Amino acid sequence: MRIVIKVGSHVLTEGGSIAKERMFSLVELVADLKKNAYEVILVSSGAVAAGYTQLKLDRSSVANKQALAAIGQPFLLKMYQEKFAHFDLLCSQVLFSADVFDSEKHITHAKVAIDTLLENGVVPIINENDTVSVEELVFGDNDRLSAHVAHYFDASMLIILSDIDAFYDKDPNQYVDAKRRAVVHDISEEELNAVHTPNNEFATGGIVTKLQSADFLMKHGREMFLASGFDLSDVRAFLIDHKHCGGTLFKV
Ligand code: ADP
User: Fold this and answer.
1) pTM for this prediction
2) Which residues are bridge partners to 3 per DSSP?
3) Sequence-separated contacts (24+) of 173-178 with Cβ below 8 Å
4) How close is the Cα of 85 to the center of ligand 1, in Å?
5) What share of the chain is helix, strand, coil (3-state, %, to 5)?
6) By the 8 A CB rule, do 145 and 128 touch?
7) Domain definitions of the chain by residue range
8) Is 50 exceeded by the pLDDT of residue 203?
9) Measured from the CB, is residue 144 less than 6 Å from ligand 1?
10) pLDDT tens-digit profile of 115-133?
11) pLDDT tens-digit series, residues 140-158
12) 2-250 carries CATH number 3.40.1160.10
């Protein structure tokens, strides 16, 4: 089964640096999933944060974020390479601009490359090419990109690993009585157009871009699972033990 795992910048960073232990746990999860016959495509943010560890540019300007992404992307990949090597796995860098998905020709070319990497046991690590394309850098933090990746490269499911462990009936960071929604079959227009609520200076999407991604995937006959990226036990249970303990499954 082919899946896409998207990890946000909030999960991958800590105090302005890359959160190496969390990255290691993520890589370990991917290695275990591969042993369980999953084909895994990773969509990873974190380039701006990795760049910031090298050069302290003011991150409030988009131009500086583009520059930091260009500096940080090779550092980010180097860290992934080292961690995947620990499990005797090879990973690879695939950078997209959002308009790749506007052209059937580009999608076909990209799919050939992704299929070939997966056939050879290599983990593709996809990110937006933030130096030429700023859509997800400004808004989305790869939530929408990962939904397109899942759909156009024929994955059954997108897994979003977030700073929040599920989708709730209201923002759990504001309301103590918020209740987890375990399974969501459809998303209302009101929810899709709600105010954007990013929770962190690196996060640019909030829950709304996640709901938009879930809506897009459900309309295309695919599923999405939203779970914690800080504690991977729910996603492990769901994918490896086939037990739905925590997290939200979006499914028609
Ligand atoms: P990430 O960077 O991990 O991808 P974001 O911080 O961008 O995630 O978005 C998740 C945040 O969205 C949560 O921390 C939470 O404060 C907020 N949020 C708003 N409404 C909800 C809701 N109904 N359910 C879950 N989270 C919500």
Assistant:
1) 0.94
2) 40, 157
3) 173/199
4) 32
5) 45, 20, 35
6) yes
7) 2-250
8) no
9) no
10) 999 999 999 999 998 888 8
11) 789 999 999 999 999 999 9
12) yes
